[in-house]
Amino acid sequence: MKGITANALKDELIGPIGSPDRDQYELELKLEILGNLIREIRHDRNLTQAELGKILGVQKAHISKIENNTTNVSVGTLLSVLKALNAQAHLRVQLLDNDTTIAV
Description:
The protein has helices at 6-13, 20-44, 49-56, 60-67, 75-84, and strands at residues 92-94, 101-103. It is mainly alpha-helical. It has a single domain (11-103), classed as 434 Repressor (Amino-terminal Domain) (Orthogonal Bundle), CATH 1.10.260.40. Helix 3 (49-56) packs across helix 4. The protein starts with 5 loop residues before the first helix and ends with a strand.
């Protein structure tokens, strides 16, 4: 019996790398992972969604939406959430048409 790799399966079911459907899938997956990471950090800091919301000046529901990836979040909001959780984000921008990488 021949096996199939995860990437080959994604190519077959979602589309090849670079296709609009695959790009959307990869983006949603990254955002879901980020939301889960925020939830884990919040739990590690022993904060409820309501408590984190109070620190940030937003409702508990907004924190829930961020953690569950049901809202679009600006980079500024993301950085504010991480700062409130005593965490940092390091962003890297890589230009795909050359070898330039910019760390922010």
